[in-house]
Amino acid sequence: MEEKKSYDIIIIGGGVAGITAGIYAKRAGRKVAIIEKMALGGQLNSIGKIENYPGFAETDGVSLVDNLYMQVEKNEIEIISDEVVGFNFKGDLKEVTCKRATYESTSIILALGMASKELGVKGESEFSGRGISYCAHCDGNFYKNKVVAVVGSGKYAVKDAVYLSQICKKVYLVSKYNVDNLLDEKFKSLSNLEIITASAVAFEGGEALKRVVIEENSQRKTLEVNGAFLVTGKKPNTELLNGQIELNENGFIVCDSSMQTSEEGVFACGDVRESSLKQIATAVGDGALAGVSANVYFLKNHL
Fold this sequence. Notes:
This protein is an alpha/beta fold. It has 6 helices and 19 strands.
């Protein structure tokens, strides 16, 4: 069998919290690896303008991701591009099994983040990535001067619809509830934004999405579109952790004040843990504390 590659601390997830944890652990002298199946930066890659991050009067997600890349390279933190398929938290060395290899470490930091919830209607899975997107800021430019629908209820759906109205020829905002009160007065006069109080019940097309079927007052009708953006909320990426560590009723990881989970030597940080506020600033704070705590745990077990 191929020998497992060993580290002092392994971090699962390359978002803001995970990278911060990696920086603190590496600067403490530990051998650190971050395992990330997609691009570094996590949800930052889908955030536009940012005005509430201390030290920056105004910035954006992409700019912060660029800075994170530079810090990772400067600190010589190893990035492993792979997908985790299982964990073993028992014993002195914990194991992380990925699709390509298995890794082991004294301590693990779970910075798994959150993922978009599925709407759960006919055609959604079929056209995901072929006309259906869950990130307006990521994919909006692909639909420049085209017709799109935003499906969702609440302020984030409204924000995405307004954002896309600056790019697209026509935007339908399909919401189960009346969202007029969430729309700023200056945006109510947008000629290419149409708000429809209805439910999306199906997505149709051929090679790519062509239609959104909606139900309004018990009547169905079809919107001809080039794309649809679903704003359905988020869920923690904790499916692989069921039965291994304590999760709350919503699937978030329960931690103590040092970010340690119910399993000794396993820490969590960022959006995946139980918390009342999820912001870039809190992710940084979580990551710093998790990185320091994981290092303390490592030293306790190697002195």
